[in-house]
Amino acid sequence: xxxxxxxxxxxxxxxxxxxxxxxxxxxxxxxxxxxxxxxxxxxxxxxxxxxxxxxxxxxxxxxxxxxxxxxxxxxxxxxxxxxxxxxxxxxxxxxxxxxxxxxxxxxxxxxxxxxxxxxxxxxxxxxxxxxxxxxxxxxxxxxxxxxxxxxxxxxxxxxx
Length: 160
What we know:
Distance between the termini: 32 Å
Low-confidence stretches: 1-6
Radius of gyration: 18 Å
Mean pLDDT: 91
Strand content: over 45%
Shape: elongated
């Protein structure tokens, strides 16, 4: 049996999340095999007093025709997590952080060349006023396609 929490004891903030899925074309490949990656990004925000906490989680179903653990799929990839203040018009960004670990995770496959996986960011936090939310943007730079980063905006969390 556990004891009840002491008055004023810190409690875990309750996160509110939203996710969206995109089919993203591997612009570096123009062959006969299916090359789209289905990537879902979930953005989550929670409030504790005047501080907002946010994290993002990406899951993907990649291709199955590349070599095992191919580190040349991307020239770069990053997941940008933002905390925004919800306002009429454009929501201003109050803080943001890029997480580049996702590139290594995207290029990691099973021994059967299955590029499915997930990656969760660390939390970021910021003191913010009314109606904050979390937002995520995925940036992918496909190796050898002659382009730079493509931007993929995902659904923002509900306000907290």
